[in-house]
Amino acid sequence: MASIKKGLYIAGPKTGGAKLENGLLANHIYGPSYVSLDTALSYYGLIPERVYEVASMTTKASKEFKTSRGLFTYTHLPLPYYAFGINRISLSSDQCAMIASPEKALCDKIVSTPGILLRSPARASAYLLEDLRMDESNLKALNCEMISSWLTDAPKKDSLEMALKIIQNL
Description:
Blueprint: E1 2-5, E2 8-10, H1 22-29, E3 33-35, H2 37-43, E4 54-58, E5 63-67, E6 70-76, E7 86-92, E8 95-100, H3 102-112, H4 121-131, H5 136-140, H6 144-150, H7 157-168
Helix pairs in contact: 2-3, 4-7
């Protein structure tokens, strides 16, 4: 048995059980939570970088856990915005996790990154295409109606509206 945090243990390799997926583990370390940000963007192939930390969103206070399985970070989001765009994803034949949709992962990235204010089309375009290095075809595939439906309750509403405008005009 390996200790992940006080009161949470996972079976070791000698028990013969399936290896626990980090996405599922992230949901259990601190909750309620769902995997998002760069972890989800990388999972969906929306950013080219490989991600080593498992980043999640929560309604609780922001927190981080350094474990034997890696770094797990949790960023606070307010309700009701927190509850939008969460999918149950099958990670293996017997493991599922709560992960942000591609649209929500992008919105969470904009909302939770300090200093990101997308006030102009040029800045929003540069952030999406240069800073995040997202591909235009992947951005065009995002569900803009879904994003638009979250704006009323979203933090950094102006920045999300500007990003949405850029995506719609691609």
